[in-house]
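Input set for joint prediction.
Command: fold jointly, output tokens.
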Amino acid sequence: AQSVAQPEDQVNVAEGNPLTVKCTYSVSGNPYLFWYVQYPNRGLQFLLKYITGDNLVKGSYGFEAEFNKSQTSFHLKKPSALVSDSALYFCAVRDTGGYSTLTFGKGTMLLVSP
Amino acid sequence: DADVTQTPRNRITKTGKRIMLECSQTKGHDRMYWYRQDPGLGLRLIYYSFDVKDINKGEISDGYSVSRQAQAKFSLSLESAIPNQTALYFCATSDHAGRGQQETQYFGPGTRLLVL
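tokens >
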């Protein structure tokens, strides 16, 4: 079985400050990990993914995420938040074995204040 | 993403009615998915299809059915709608990247369904 947890329903940060959105996962083998963002009245947009290799993954809009195998985490980060980053963020995981599908977290609302 | 379209974008229906949600894609992807999104529950997989002849149940398939009419089209039906099927429904597509790879999923804009 595979699962993903986003422990925070909402994260508040001031514009210009660094942001972190947390994600932890559970898989039986090795994970594929994803971050998606959902803006109001829009579908989900792909931000970045970890497949293998470097633990620090860089993605769209200045976001990056760090894969930590020992802590089973894949936190999303950005050095300087923008008001336009305010959105709902989803972490997703898939076990590398077989043809299983993605399991999504419940989402974290990021609110960046001016 | 304009490459994945969903119709209708909004729908209000009554309990017991049959309703179909349609998804079309121009990305040429083999794999298609239907999810529902509920506040606080994230996205849950309803059905998925890895090619035209392949249909698989997801986490929450009860009360739903699907049809893969062509590579580019994947429809979701609610045979007899009930109020707890009120949700935001998303279609997604992905390409087959080969064993050991993980393809990225691309989402449509969603259909907001209200069952009265």
